Amino acid sequence: MKKTFCLGGVHPNDNKISKNAAIEVFPPIETAYISMAQHLGAPAEPVVAVGDKVKVGTVIGKPTGFISGYVHSSVSGTVKAIEPRADIAGNLVMHVVIAVEGDEWCEEIDRSRDIVRECNLTSEEILSKIQNAGVVGLGGASFPTHVKLNPPKDKKAVALILNGTECEPFITSDDRIMRERPVEILIGAEIMMKVLNVDKAYVGIEENKPEAIASMSAAAKDFKGIEVVTLKKKYPQGGEKQLIDAVIGRQVPSGKLPIDVGAVVQNVATSLSIYEAVQKNKPVIDNSVTVSGHCMDVQHNYLVRVGTPVSKILEVAGGIPKDAAKIVSGGPMMGKAIANLDAATVKANGSILILSEEETVRKPESNCIRCGKCASACPMGLEPWLLNKLARVGGRYDDLEKERIFDCIECGCCLYTCPANIPLLDLIRINKAEVMKIIRGRAAKK
Amino acid sequence: MTGTILFTIACLVALGLLFSVVLYFVAQKFKVEEDPRIGIVESIMPGANCGGCGHAGCHAFAESVVKAPSMEGFFCPVGGNATMSKVAQALGRAVEEKEPMVAVVRCHGTFDNRERTNHYDGYASCKVMAALYTGDTGCKYGCLGKGDCVDACNFDAIHIDQRRGIAEVDESKCVACGACAKACPKGVIELRPKGFKGRRVYVSCINKDKGAVTRKACAVGCIGCGKCVKECQFDAIHVENNVAYIDFTKCKMCRKCFDACPTKAIWAVNFPPRPAAPAVSPAPAPAPAVEKPAEAPKSE
User: Fold this and answer.
1) Residues of B in contact with A423 (CB under 8 A)
2) Does B140 touch chain A (CB under 8 A)?
3) Measured between CA atoms, how close is B121 to chain A, in angstroms?
4) Which strand (E) or helix (H) includes residue A95?
5) Which residues, 6 or more positions from A122, have their beta carbon under 8 angstroms from its beta carbon?
């Protein structure tokens, strides 16, 4: 019996049509637009000036708070401008614009693909290396990794869980790196185990990636305490709390963090960048991006430098197909439609998805018949119909708080399963933000 | 059988009498002394309970106005000056006339003026849309046209024209309660004085982008060129963050800025047509009073 999480979940068609496209190195770009908001928390502050020469790996942004991170140049060339530019949603974010000249890397970066396993650094040294390399959670939330690997002193981690589930349909970038670079990922895990001082690590992979399971299992034989766990296919298994439940059978209580049950979850792509940061001195300057969609002739997985415009990626991938209706950053369940194609990719951009008119059609909404499908699909045990009802009335934040709206992980299962096509998540999302603000305000008052 | 029915009725009557006596004494004992003037003031109020005055409803407004020493700071936007003078009379106080206000949508980015670069197909709410991205056009600031203001309005005074795609206020119905201004996530709607015969001059744009960016996004956006500032003799117009704003306390409605504005972002509404300008263009001789297209954006 394969493991999975116990509460809710849905089974969308996985559409992993790009799984056989090996990761190609994306051709050099002319101009890189590097966002200063590549991570959750405070945006970085640019530390270069217009006209400065930068190399690949030069620090161009420094953190401005505890939850913040370094940003590095992903190309070599001259800083052309430091200006606010629109991100994929159209919001203005400070960008460093670099005109690319050649491809010169900082000397300390080891560019060879030779595998370095030995790591004699102390935990503090490793953590500072991770921080200086600007490593963030590449699963999508882009939480600064050094913060997550440094839990409060009174909480002890028991196990590290590597997230290789990739439960979102279409995306295959994690699948590809697990097939192509399993040893590096596991060395990254070993480094994290050392930092967290745990002797057990699990790699959770869903059953629809047999090649990845095979390659990871083969590589894991050389590593003590690392176990590959095959999971049943179910969305949203990649959610932190769902994955902990599936792999080690512990439920994170409402309002608590994974560390409270002794678990630390990291994405496999994050593990790979930790390996590169610690063993190869390479900051996060590129990431693998899936470019996929049924209307595309060829599916791609690219190794893209951070700061490449989305339009450029689409151009290289064969242009925007005629019947494309929506271009999404991220997966079809949780991803965001891209409003501005000139926006540049950031570290946590795992995929660009091209959906046709047919796939994106919104069916007309009808009345809620209280069938309860949303409640049984919700992986957090909430009642989406009720939250939506309260949200529509407006202003009933105390009731929404009682109904634990802040537990919502915005996975979209409710909306996916609703037979009345009610856009449940839209209102829940903005009301959740409102309730979180109230809770934070209350905590600040105390 | 009859006995049972009679007995039941007698019992109920006795119980009723008993409880009424108890309730009478309890009501006397715990009587809440309320100023009788509160009731009088409340009966004068329009009873819309819209919250436009800043109080929870008409009763709450009446309560605080009776408690307050003067009429200062109290105004019912729905009833306007007529209601306020009646309230003042009932309380034996003096009241100052207030200028009537009206909600003004400071955006004319219609489908013709603003090119759509995206098409939103999600939940029809400006708030949801604004949380997801900056909007369907190149303009980050303007009206989204999903009608949160329409839902907020208790007086059926604001509508989205589906052919134009922006919110438009029906002046005859608007009571300036400010509910729409609060509901708008972009802050496009402002309350401005209605003006003599409804005549107003205002900048119908809040785009803070640089001129070139604004120009590209919208044909009638304010590019912050400052021509209106130079024209104005009353120091009423200032350009801040690349957008002009007309201070209505200083504006004398000369309309020089309206003539000077190169993008027609400044609107002058409800003015009578000017006497035919001498030899501007070979206009047809019996030019009747055709309203300028830039004037009078009537909602219907």
Assistant:
1) 122-123
2) yes
3) 7
4) strand A92-100
5) none
- Would you list the domain boundaries of chain A? 23-109+283-357, 123-280, 373-445
Interval B40-84: pLDDT, tens:
898 998 888 888 888 888 999 998 988 888 888 888 888 888 888
Exposure string for B265-284, b = 16+ CB within 10 A, e = fewer: bbbbbbbeeeeeeeeeeeee
A90 vs chain B: nearest CA distance in angstroms?
A: 5
Whether residue B175 sits in one domain with residue B111: yes
Same domain, B196 and B118: yes
Q: How far is A323 from chain B (nearest CA, A)?
A: 15
Asked if residue B26 belongs to a domain, the reply is: no
CATH number of the domain within which B84 lies: 1.10.15.40
Same domain? For B71 and B121 the reply is no
Cβ of A339 within 8 Å of Cβ of B131? The answer is: no
Query: Would the CB atoms of A92 and B140 count as touching at under 8 Å?
Result: yes
A433 and B131 within 8 Å at the Cβ level: the answer is yes
Give the predicted TM-score (pTM) of the model. Answer: 0.83
Any domain includes B11: no
Domain extent, residue B58, equals: 36-91
Q: Are residues B149 and B64 in the same domain?
A: no
B6-17 in b/e burial notation, b at 16+ Cβ within 10 A?
eeeeeeeeeeee
Of the candidates A423, A415, A427, which has an alpha carbon nearest to the alpha carbon of residue A391?
Answer: A427
Q: What distance separates the 2 farthest-apart alpha carbons in chain B?
A: 104
ipTM of the complex model: 0.84
Which chain B positions have a beta carbon within 8 Å of A395's beta carbon?
none
Residue B251: which CATH number? 3.30.70.20
Interchain contact, B123 vs A89, CB within 8 Å: no
pLDDT tens-place string over residues A191-249: 999 999 999 999 999 999 999 999 999 999 999 999 999 999 999 999 999 999 999 99
Contact residues, chain A, for B121 at CB < 8 Å: 360, 362
For domain A123-280, which CATH number applies: 3.40.50.2000, 3.30.420.40, 3.55.50.30, 3.40.50.11540?
3.40.50.11540
8 Å CB contact of B140 and A423? no
In a domain, B281, yes or no: no
| Residue with tokens 């409640």, as numbered in its chain | A375
A90 close to B (CB below 8 A): yes
Q: Please report where in the chains the tokens 């400010």 appear, as a residue.
A: B178
Task: Please state, in angstroms and rounded to a whole number, the distance separating the CA atoms of residues A429 and A435.
Answer: 10
* Partner B, chain A 361-400, Cβ-Cβ below 8 Å: 362
